[in-house]
Amino acid sequence: MSKSQLRKEAYEYIKRQIGKLHGFPHDANYPSAIPLNELVLLKDGLADPPVELIALLKQLLKGSVTEAEIDAHLVAPFQQRKMD
Description:
By secondary structure, the protein is an all-alpha fold. The protein is 56% helix and 0% strand. The longest helix is centred in the N-terminal third of the chain and has 17 residues, at 3-19.
């Protein structure tokens, strides 16, 4: 699978998981915004998921998705092998 396709699949994963949330936590430890420009690049298959976005998603989705699942979708596919 091409790196561009992996990126698009990572975006779709994020979209599905965020869509499951009923509201963002109102905790001061949570960043106030998801970097939309990073999501657009991911959606278009132009960039890998950035470390900051992955960390934010792990905080936002804590309790509903395991870190291992997030890593399986957003970290591992981009570490496995060199692609386009």
